[in-house]
Amino acid sequence: MTKTWKTYQPYALALPQTLVFLLFLILPILMIGLVSFWQFNGYAMVREFTLGNYTDIFTSNVYVSTYLNTFKYVLLVWFFCLAIAFPVAYFLAFHIQNQSLQIILFLVCTVPFWTSNIIRMISWIPVLGKEGLINSLLMHLNLVQEPVTWLLYSDFAVVLGMVHLYSFFMIAPIFNSMMRIERNLITAAEDMGASGWQILREVILPLSAPGIAIGSIFVVTLVMGEYVTVRLMGGGQSASVGKLIQTQIGSLQYPLAAANAVILLIVTLILVIGILRVVDIRKEL
Amino acid sequence: MNSSTSVAPSEIQPMLNQLQQELSAQAVGVTLRNVTKRYGSFTAVENINLEIQAGSYTCLLGPSGCGKTTTLRMIAGHEEISSGDLLIGERRVNDLPPTQRNTAMMFQNYALFPHKTVWENVEFGLKMRQMPKAERASQVNEMLEIVGLTKFADRKPAKLSGGQQQRAALARALVTRPQVLLLDEPLSALDENLRVKTRSELRRLQKQFGMTFVQVTHGQDEAFALSDQIIVMDNGRIDQIGTPSQIFQRPVSRFVARFVGDNNIFMGKVREVTPNSVQMEVEGIGTLLCCRENQPAEVGDSAACSVRSDSMSLRPYPPDDLNAPNQLTARVVSIEFTGYVTRVSLLSEATGAEITYKARSDDWMKQPVAEGQLVSLSWSSDDCVFLAH
């Protein structure tokens, strides 16, 4: 009796989580996959097999350029997040000697998360808008005659909003990696004559690579599926695959939306696998 | 080091000889003059004067927080000096960065770069010095050959044993041809057996290369086994500088006497002073005759003296002459057999002091004494060292 229980115990413990995953993750994905091969007659789904949804996506210039636009967002947001997060994490990890101050400053980085995403996005409008803070200032100083229009409802605004939202997801893992770097290693590098830049390049950067990789996975997957920021900050001007899917769902084109979702999922997975190929993150987990 | 330095294959021997000549020719001493290190209001090292001979092995010995590591880091250039002068050879190096001091440091836990291979680790210092690639490669290969790590050149440090890591760290430190090698507790990461073995290898290497080694340690055994000169530090000051046998046989202070081993310390009043002896009166024990070298002593001073636990003799109570100096009566509390030595704890009932006595186990077994028995301990005045502070 005890022996049988011992054998089944691990399976029993894993069962609830497995069921949750099966029911709420695997099953819906399979359903989306299935629906993506159904037809749409303009009013409703028809349960008949077709590859039409996929061929539509790959042959339409609008769709392809939407994908390219999404990649552009991913690249820009990833780049700026990294450009902000690395120095911030470096400062926190190596320049703040006092441990409690370090923790306080790290928590300060989380302050933006104390309000909801949407409110934070909307708060940009009075700053960036035509009659917003920045434009009023520029006009007041006579630097421009007409309000600058590309500040809001533009790709610039979309990237700004997403960098604002996601840089913390880059800061946290990089900071974590840097805190694990033995301080002796830096002294040793100095002892052997490395300059500040050389220490950064030869020691700190390679040893924080796992953190950069984890942060990149966060940022890339989040931006790939983004539609709220694109809608709020881009106005009607900007497009992303996430927003496309949302629009298609709004007009009940479920098969097409499902096909887009499947492609998006596959592309995101390829990106994640690519990152994992470059950097070994196992020692960080 | 095992296979390569002791029985070197013929192709290594010329390299080894050349390295040996280069290193011993350029070895220099280190001098500290009134060196002080303050962190805000805290003084880590106070007014240290120190002379380290070229080609010698010096250990900075003391408990944690005594300032020994700070002193080493000041010599290396990783800590600034608050005041005083630091000379490496004839050069004043107070304001020079670590690389321009011609020192190299071996760190506690080795501080090998975990993301670089052994080869890249050894190459690092040369690369930072912008040595041309070809020259770099030949020097790294040669050094790996000398420490016997050629086969492991492509491994990451995590894939090496403790002893191999130690050799990699040594290769990395020596490849830049330093004039002084600074070692920060280099043996503390090793287990007991390997530590003793590596210790003698370090010593042999130092002698072979004729280099100046300065090592920080908190283990007296390590300091005794390695050093030409030991510097005992306490609270940011130097308590005593001497050879291992001087430190062991003639401690100058209560701190040194306590730190270097099982010394019995007696407190009393100075009764009589001659140029090479002091007579002390210790309450509950009686008269003690101590030898004195040049420690200051005044009649009437409160002072202390120290007797090594292995230089006393133990006899059954009562002694022949109850009034003779340098003897005390104590009861055996416990007996520990530790192998070569048997260690006996006793209690002096007149003073309440704990006394430690050590004897060779063979001698002890010829005339064993049971726990609880009253015995008489005595010693010669040559073995009773007067302590100035």
TrEMBL record, chain A:
BP GO annotations: transmembrane transport
Pfam families, per the entry: BPD_transp_1 (PF00528)
Coiled coil: none
Keywords: Cell membrane, Membrane, Transmembrane, Transmembrane helix, Transport
InterPro entries for the chain: MetI-like, MetI-like_sf
Predominant location: membrane
Top-level taxon: Bacteria
SUPFAM superfamilies xref list: MetI-like (SSF161098)
Subcellular location(s) of the protein: Cell membrane
Bilayer topology term: Multi-pass membrane protein
Transmembrane domains' residue ranges: 12-38, 73-92, 104-128, 148-175, 203-224, 257-279
Residue ranges of every copy of the ABC transmembrane type-1 domain listed in the record: 67-275
Record's GO cellular component terms: plasma membrane
Family membership: Belongs to the binding-protein-dependent transport system permease family. CysTW subfamily.
Name listed for the protein in its UniProt record: ABC transporter permease
Organism expressing this protein natively: Pegethrix bostrychoides GSE-TBD4-15B
Automatic annotation (TrEMBL), chain B:
Main location: membrane
Protein's cellular compartments: Cell inner membrane
InterPro entries found in the cross-reference section: AAA+_ATPase (IPR003593), ABC_SmlMolc_Importer (IPR050093), ABC_transporter-like_ATP-bd (IPR003439), ABC_transporter-like_CS (IPR017871), Mo/tungstate-bd_C_term_dom (IPR008995), P-loop_NTPase (IPR027417), Transp-assoc_OB_typ2 (IPR013611)
Sample GO molecular function, one term: ATP hydrolysis activity
Domain of life assignment: Bacteria
Key words, A-Z: ATP-binding, Nucleotide-binding, Transport
Membrane topology of the entry: Peripheral membrane protein
Residues in ABC transporter domain copies: 30-260
Gene Ontology CC entries for this record: ATP-binding cassette (ABC) transporter complex
Protein name per the record: ABC transporter ATP-binding protein
Originating organism: Pegethrix bostrychoides GSE-TBD4-15B
